[in-house]
Specification:
Alpha-Beta Plaits; Rossmann fold; 2 domains; eight-stranded mixed β-sheet; four-stranded antiparallel β-sheet; 8 helices; 14 strands
Amino acid sequence: MAHQSYVLKVSCPDRIGIVSRVSTFLASKQCMIKEANHHADAILGKFFMRNEISDMQMSPEEFETEFKTIADEFEMQWSLSPRIQKKRVIIMVSKQDHCLYDLLYRWKSGEMDYEIPCVISNHLDLKSLVEWHGIPYVHIPVTPDNKPQAFAEVVKWVEHYEADTIVLARYMQIIPPELCEKYPGQIINIHHSFLPSFIGAKPYHQAFERGVKLIGATCHYVTQDLDAGPIIEQEVRRVTHSESAEEMVVLGKDVEKNALARGLKFHLEDRVLLSGNKTIVFA
């Protein structure tokens, strides 16, 4: 246990003495604080903290028992997560491959440390790519008539692999409300940042027709409100009249995959705290 690192995340009503009490407790247990972040939201009256700790001279169960006194006193919502444990990420994709390629590269190269137990798709287009990486490819067709059955099948695979996170890497189906409720703060999506403008097909072409000067992407948690969940990360890029619609599509793919990768990285490193429909991201 001596070399294991943990992330302690805390949110609670804001008041004097929180940092002092938590730090004193950690010091009394011979814990080294490797990284400390905190934020006080004056409007909501809430306090958020993330500490990365090591050299913990007790089991997580013992920590939970002893920390409970402080947690109860300050009305804390909190979690303690091991940093060494790889999270299991199921990727869902349709036909567009740029985000999938990027996530596979970052996984294969070790740039991002996670497991991909399977890739789920409603099409067969990317099967050979995924299986070349040695990853199971689960084909679950989705039609207007079979959506309940199809997403029940998705849940079956998520539970089978005990996945921690689901990433919608340009998965072009609406996630049903019951899945959003079942996996709160566990489903991550990426989309272009024109919304609510340029809804529907070919948003970059619509943006080109309007002469937009910025294109972007938003990585967010999926909720029952379509494309309106808590935002984890965003990226923008300036464009000019010289870029064609097709060039804007290419640039858009670049910002989408970068925003998704950073958002997923923050999530996997337990750097995201949820507060209603907002996030506090200790990047």
